[in-house]
Amino acid sequence: MEFHPQPKPGTPRVWAFPAPERGRLGNGLTVLRCHRPGQQVVAVEIVLDAPLDAEPEGLDGVATIMARALSEGTDKHTAEEFAAELERCGATLDAHADHPAVRVSLEVPASRLHKALGLLSDALRAPAFADDEVDRLVRNRLDEIPHETANPARRAAKQLSAELFPASSRMSRPRQGTEETVARIDAAAVRAFYEAHVRPASATAVVVGDLTGIDLDALLDETLGAWKGDAPRPRTASPVTADDTGRVVIVDRPGAVQTQLLIGRVGPDRHDRVWPAQVVGTYCLGGTLTSRLDRVLREEKGYTYGVRAFGQVLRSLPDGTGAAMLAISGSVDTPNTGPALDDLWKVLRTLAAEGLTDAERDAAVHNLVGVAPLKYETAASVAGTLADQVEQHLPDDFQAQLYRRLDATGTVEATAAVVSAFPPDRLVTVLVGDAARIKEPVEALGLGEVTVVTG
User: Fold this and answer.
1) How far apart are CA 237 and CA 231, in angstroms?
2) 133 — phi, psi (to 5°)?
3) 69, 186, 325, 332: which has the fewest C-beta neighbours closer than 10 Å?
């Protein structure tokens, strides 16, 4: 009997994020397409250069109302008819506004792509912005605000933004506006914002899915290519500035049985060379149930169901500058608020003194890189990431390069990045909880000035 040696596995290769093809329509609309065989639900993302800092003074929230109103009727269909046409296509259409841009998202079976692109084009080209529909959206938004204020996590995020950024910065105020500003919005304000900022020459369309047998060029020319508009108007954006002087703000919620924690500062975004190492280090600190923060605060002490550390890009400018929110979030029971914060700061100080271990780094890279193929199984997930890159003025191959850089990140690099991201003496801490019970033990920790605001 002849025996053959067992084959040996080859060297593993880092999964490559799909590469898009870039083009432009006659009306100036930039197009990124990505053929994904087998993805019969096509995802389309439209990135509109209508950032929140372009909202007129006193009308915070008008970008959100405009985004929601895009699907509430066109020059061809009433709001009800438009919804019915989408349903006949088996399509979903959504839109939202954030600091970098307004995003419009469409998902539709490939066989209905032509019809759905026509509806999307109508929504962008000639939205109705009917008085009654805009008034209804404003009322709905006003109804949402008290619920958001009552939510401890949302309230903490609102307070942290107000603390970190200057009052003159749009980033210091709620993304979707306040009761005062939203109440001022009407159809005329929505249309004025649309006319000032929504035009094809400053927009990008991302199309991802199985494009087999689809003449996408012809479809786009016939649909989104019919959208006309003026050339983009010059607009300047100021760099992000923030005050990360170590301090604590307690949003008082008398009788609260838990304290919501949000600890943060502003740091490097994806344009910075440190970003891959920062991602790995932050994951080791608080990216999973086995991270350092969870091991101490959840497993050892039982203070919480979980604490997470993360980096969230805020806004990037065309010149390659930008900023990200670097934060730690979670909730603990009220009596253990002081001890939990004390242990959290001990984790940060120990990390700075001793660094990460190779095992921690290896586990983080394995999880971050290994999960990539699963994370991008759908067309929508690929389209969303490509649209993020457009918003953040990143090259088309950024995500593909990122996984290679994550894989190449060493323990020393990851340690240096996470220690720089979360310096114990340069963090702004927001606590939403019962001030009468938590203020004194928090003050004893010496984390900076402690102030109390009403919730």
Assistant:
1) 18
2) -70, -45
3) 186
Residue 440: other Cβ atoms inside 10 A:
11
Cα-Cα end-to-end distance for the chain? 80
- If DSSP codes are grouped into helix, strand and coil, which group holds residue 87? helix
Cα(267)–Cα(314) distance, rounded to whole angstroms?
10
DSSP class of residue 176 equals T
The predicted model scores a pTM of 0.94
Which residue, 448, 444, 438, is CA-closest to 259? 438
- Chain segment 293-327, per-residue pLDDT in tens: 999 999 999 999 889 999 999 989 888 888 999 99
Average per-residue pLDDT for the chain: 95
Whole-number Å distance between alpha carbons of 86 and 390: 26
Q: What is the CA radius of gyration of the chain?
A: 24
C-alpha dist (Å) from residue 375 to 68, 199, 268, 423: 28, 32, 24, 31
Residues across the chain = 455
- 38-47 confidence digits (pLDDT tens): 999 999 999 9
Please, which residues bridge with residue 419 across strands? none
49, 84, 86: which is closest to 205 by C-alpha?
Answer: 49
